[in-house]
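name: query_chain
kind: protein
chains: 1
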Amino acid sequence: MAYHPILKNALLAPRTREYASMHAHARTQAPEYYDEIQAHIQAQLMGDAAGGAGAGAAAKGASPSDFWYDVGGWVVLGAVIVGTLVLARSSAKA
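structure:
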C-alpha cells in the first residue's frame, strides 16, 4: 500500500520522535550503567580473590548430582546429534 509522501511523513513522525527520545535517554544513561556494571564486576573479582575460591575449589566441592546433570546433558546432546543424522539420512533417501 503506497502512501502519499506527506501522509507517510505524518504517519511516521510520532514514532520517529518517540524513538529519538528513547535513544537520547539511553545515551544519557549509558555512562551510569557502565559504571554500575564495572562496580559489580570489580566486586566479584575482589570477592573471588579474597575468598580464594577459584575454578579448582568449585570443582572439588561438586556434588554427585552435578555429575548426573553432566551425564544427562551429554546424553541429550548425543540424542540430538543421532536424531539429526537419522533425519538427514531419511530425507536424503526420499
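note: The chain has a mean pLDDT of 78.
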